[in-house]
Task: inverse folding
């Protein structure tokens, strides 16, 4: 059974940094596309970053140059390093896993419970 658990969310000031972690079980992290989504109240869900089987990454335009997705296969852990945080980054962040080698737009059957990131000015 696939299980994902995020951690690392916090409240920070504008310009601060956080690193989110996602421990994955029942799933080979490096075999499929995985990533991070975020959703704030009243806003559409947004795909933040993905990493495919080969390690290639994609990012939403809103976070390019500031966020970095990575994984530690030995620890079965996915990371999202977030730098230069802005108030508009405030959201619930979710770790997601697909059953695809490449990264789909929205077909991610497995989701974590979410971790809250709040950025204040």
Result:
């Amino acid at each position: 059974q696939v299980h994902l658990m995020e951690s690392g969310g916090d409240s920070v000031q504008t310009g601060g940094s956080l690193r989110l972690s996602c421990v994955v079980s029942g799933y080979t992290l490096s075999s499929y596309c995985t990533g991070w989504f975020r959703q704030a109240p009243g806003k559409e869900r947004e795909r933040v970053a993905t990493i495919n089987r080969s390690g290639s990454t994609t990012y939403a335009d809103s976070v390019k140059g500031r966020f970095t997705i990575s994984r530690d296969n030995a620890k079965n852990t996915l990371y999202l390093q977030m730098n230069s945080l802005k108030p508009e980054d405030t959201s619930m962040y979710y770790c997601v896993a697909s059953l695809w080698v490449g990264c789909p737009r929205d077909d991610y059957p497995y989701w974590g419970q979410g971790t809250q990131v709040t950025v204040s000015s």
User: Anything to note?
Assistant: The first strand starts at residue 3 and ends at 7. Residues 9 and 72 are 19 Å apart (CA to CA).
